[in-house]
Automatic annotation (TrEMBL):
<dbReference type="InterPro" id="IPR013944">
    <property type="entry name" value="OxRdtase_put_C"/>
</dbReference>
<dbReference type="InterPro" id="IPR000683">
    <property type="entry name" value="Gfo/Idh/MocA-like_OxRdtase_N"/>
</dbReference>
<feature type="region of interest" description="Disordered">
    <location>
        <begin position="1"/>
        <end position="49"/>
    </location>
</feature>
<dbReference type="InterPro" id="IPR036291">
    <property type="entry name" value="NAD(P)-bd_dom_sf"/>
</dbReference>
<dbReference type="Pfam" id="PF01408">
    <property type="entry name" value="GFO_IDH_MocA"/>
</dbReference>
<feature type="domain" description="Gfo/Idh/MocA-like oxidoreductase N-terminal">
    <location>
        <begin position="61"/>
        <end position="214"/>
    </location>
</feature>
<dbReference type="InterPro" id="IPR052515">
    <property type="entry name" value="Gfo/Idh/MocA_Oxidoreductase"/>
</dbReference>
<feature type="compositionally biased region" description="Polar residues">
    <location>
        <begin position="1"/>
        <end position="17"/>
    </location>
</feature>
<dbReference type="Pfam" id="PF08635">
    <property type="entry name" value="ox_reductase_C"/>
</dbReference>
<feature type="domain" description="Oxidoreductase putative C-terminal">
    <location>
        <begin position="217"/>
        <end position="358"/>
    </location>
</feature>
<feature type="compositionally biased region" description="Basic and acidic residues">
    <location>
        <begin position="20"/>
        <end position="31"/>
    </location>
</feature>
<protein>
    <recommendedName>
        <fullName>NAD binding dehydrogenase</fullName>
    </recommendedName>
</protein>
<dbReference type="GO" id="GO:0000166">
    <property type="term" value="F:nucleotide binding"/>
</dbReference>
Length: 458
């Protein structure tokens, strides 16, 4: 039988609960530790929602959602929808005590839909607030959350500055309470990265469970790649990542504006930069080089944009292509190319991981994940498919199991992306953006010098 840590309200106060056996066995499992080991999960344990049973117990599991947008409540853009996964994992235990969003009407509208459906029990007591402060001021002890799920835009978090410091607010108001933070951890100016690392340290010191939404790590295919590497004691020699997004489907003006979203590498390519790091290890940030194809270059024209780019200042328009390479601390080499070139809806993304005798190729992880494996002794690739895999469910399911401290099998649940790890991915994406801007500036300077030389000679 699985045993759970009792969840009395007392435990949600400022004291950190006593450590149990499973925590001692591996604090990195909880997502708050600074461990060099990159955790993995047995792929056979990653099961889709319809095959998973609700977590046990009968007591209420209070949750606060921050952000009432697409990631939290779903949209046509993709399969994400955290509320849906929480409902399935927690069943009747789920009580969303508050929904925080300055867009009150949007929050009320999504709640109304929930209350009109069979999951009403989770939402009938949900109160809407514009800020976390407002919730705390109006909160009774029975409303204390066991987890705070942050799906607000990254420009409002990841720093220690008032108004953009939701993690620090959570740590202050609810010490020890679990957090889930969406990727990327921030999109502010590069100079603020240190503030994100400060938050990582505070989370780690607090011992709070914290998971960041790099859900591709929870793909069955990704965990199978990990398993092959671990079982064969392989050393990764190269990671080769390619991310082709379907730009036609991206109708959010902010996404096309570097001053708002920090650009396609920081905001979107981050998933594949993160996966590259998951396999390649720490990156030597000083080694990062990159080139870009910009919107105003001959080859940079896009014919089917769904937004009016003229509303964005020219200097804030995003590149159409960014290609980067870097060295890992191990000596291995990483490369990543992001292109905003596809029309239609589906993205086309691939990640190759190479080691002596082995090639592991992850194809189409967003739509229909496939893994191509080539091993010593056979020149042919074996193709493996993963029908019904749901990494969004797996990341939530693992988070809840860790919070509940299910001890049936302490190896089963893992937080695969800690806040500190996510900070390092954020740092890599900024390094790529900056490297591409440096090479663009250098090219412009060369063109200008050449033009001036021609002018002088005439
Ligand atoms: N892992 C994935 O595949 C995936 C998919 C989609 C979105 N995301 C991430 O989720 C985050 C949110 O994206 P989205 O698509 O839901 O955006 P969205 O614009 O649909 O929703 C964001 C919501 O947050 C609200 N908001 C703004 N400021 C806030 C604040 N200070 N506090 C609370 N709420 C605030 C907005 O009013 C809006 O309702 C982003 O970081 C995005 O990258 C991840």
């Amino acid at each position: 039988m699985a045993s759970r840590r009792p969840s009395s309200n007392l435990e949600m106060t400022s004291t950190i609960p006593n450590r149990r056996g499973s925590e001692r066995r591996g604090s990195d499992r909880r997502g708050s530790g600074f461990s060099s080991r990159r955790p993995s999960i047995d792929p056979s344990r990653l099961i889709p929602m319809d095959k998973a049973s609700h977590v046990g117990g009968t007591d209420d599991f209070n949750v606060v959602f921050i952000g009432a947008g697409n990631i939290m409540f779903g949209s046509d853009e993709g399969p994400w929808n955290h509320s849906f996964r929480f409902e399935h994992k927690l069943g009747l235990r789920l009580k969303v005590v508050a929904l925080i969003d300055p867009a009150i009407e949007r929050a009320r509208a999504v709640l109304q839909k929930k209350c009109d459906s069979f999951v009403v029990s989770a939402y009938q007591g949900t109160r809407v607030f514009k800020t976390l402060d407002d919730f705390v001021k109006n909160m009774s002890s029975k409303d204390r959350p066991r987890a705070v799920i942050v799906g607000s835009p990254p420009m409002f978090r990841g720093t220690i500055q008032p108004g953009r410091d939701v993690e620090m607010q959570i740590l202050k108001y609810f010490p020890g309470v679990a957090m889930f933070i969406e990727k990327p951890i921030a999109t502010g100016p590069k100079a603020e990265i240190e503030q994100a690392f400060t938050i990582a340290k505070r989370i780690s010191d607090s011992k709070a469970v914290c998971s960041v939404g790099y859900m591709l790590r929870y793909l069955k295919a990704v965990q199978m790649m990990k398993r092959i590497i671990e079982e064969n004691d392989l050393t990764v020699m190269a990671t080769i990542a390619r991310y082709a997004c379907a730009y036609e489907a991206i109708a959010k003006l902010d996404w096309w504006d570097k001053s708002k979203s920090a650009g396609p590498i920081v905001e979107q390519g981050t998933h594949f930069c993160d996966l590259s790091r998951y396999f390649g290890g720490e990156v030597d940030i000083s080694s990062v080089t990159a080139h870009s194809l910009e919107w105003d270059e001959n080859a940079g024209h896009l014919s089917k944009m769904s937004v009016d780019e003229s509303q964005i200042a020219p200097e804030n328009r995003i590149p159409r292509v960014t290609a980067a390479t870097w060295k890992y601390d191990s000596g291995a080499v990483g490369s990543f190319t992001h292109v905003a070139t596809l029309q239609g809806h589906n993205y086309s993304c691939e990640l190759e991981v190479h080691a002596d005798g082995y090639s592991l190729k992850l194809v189409n992880p967003y739509v229909q994940p496939m893994l191509y494996v080539r091993k010593p002794g056979d020149d042919h690739e074996q193709m493996i498919t993963f029908p019904d895999d749901d990494p969004f469910f797996s990341e939530i399911s693992n988070l809840i199991d860790i919070i509940e401290d299910i001890e049936e099998d302490p190896e089963a649940a893992q937080i695969l992306s800690t806040y500190e790890d996510a900070c390092k991915t954020y740092e890599l994406t900024w390094a790529i953006r900056e490297a591409s801007e440096r090479s663009r500036d250098a090219k412009l300077a060369r063109s200008k010098a050449a033009a001036e030389a021609v002018k002088e000679s005439t």
